[in-house]
Write a structure and sequence with these properties.
- There is one protein chain.
- The protein is an alpha/beta fold and 174 residues long.
- Helix content is 36%, strand content 25%.
- The protein contains five helices and six strands.
- A six-stranded mixed sheet has the order 2-3-1-4-5-6, sandwiched between helices.
- Helix 3 links the parallel strand 4 and strand 5.
- The protein starts with 5 loop residues before the first strand and ends with a helix.
- The chain binds guanosine-5'-diphosphate and magnesium ion.
- The site of magnesium ion (MG) has 6 residues, from helix 1.
Length: 174
């Protein structure tokens, strides 16, 4: 018998090296390994309780080859929500998420969580918290500064919160 689990599909987007895989693995396993496959896009399926309801998370950990490679429309068509990641230590990665948002234009209206990763590397900071907050206002989404290297709970909250948004939009559209 096919299970009737509620599925929520999340695509994790961002420039190479910002910590997309580290964040995804942190959320799914609570672990931080430090080194991740840099070659391949990976799709995970994992059941997580959200406010007492079991949700099947499908997470697409995207893997652009370089700063120029933006997500294809297929990704936006597939996803219920996006986690957009930049690193506070990498100005170019901040510009990357801005460009990603531009390519979506108004065609795709998906819940977004904007995440600034590598918050442990304050001494190498290139993007201020305020800039992140301003961009989030522009995106009309939430903004969180995290460190996949150090945190578990706050990272889970990002995924759970964007999942709640998806569920709430679905309920409204029913
Ligand atoms: P991806 O290309 O976006 O998937 O990035 P990865 O998850 O492979 O991470 C790229 C590099 O950044 C790896 O060497 C990670 O160990 C490192 N990294 C990821 N998150 C953090 C973090 O929060 N702090 C620090 N200092 N390094 C991180
Ligand atoms: Mg990766």
């Amino acid at each position: 018998k096919k299970s009737s689990l509620t599925e929520v599909k999340i695509a994790v987007l961002g420039a190479p090296g910002v910590g997309k895989s580290a964040l995804t693995v942190r959320f799914l396993t609570k672990r931080y390994i430090g080194e991740y496959d840099h070659q391949a896009e990976t799709r995970y399926k994992h059941e997580v309780m959200v406010d007492g309801e079991p949700i099947l998370f499908e997470i697409l950990d995207t893997c652009p080859k370089n700063d120029e490679e933006l997500p294809l429309h297929d990704v936006y068509n597939w996803a219920d929500a996006l986690v957009m990641v930049f690193a506070i230590t990498d100005r170019r990665s901040f510009n990357y998420v801005r460009r990603v948002k531009q390519t979506m234009l108004d065609t795709f209206d998906l819940p977004v969580a904007l995440v600034a990763n590598k918050a442990d590397m304050v001494h190498l900071r290139q993007v201020s918290t305020e800039e992140g907050e301003i961009l989030a206002k522009d995106f009309e989404c939430c903004f969180t500064e995290v460190a996949a290297a150090e945190q578990v709970g706050q990272i889970a909250d990002v995924f759970l919160e964007v999942c709640r948004e998806v569920l709430s939009v679905r309920r409204k559209n029913k």
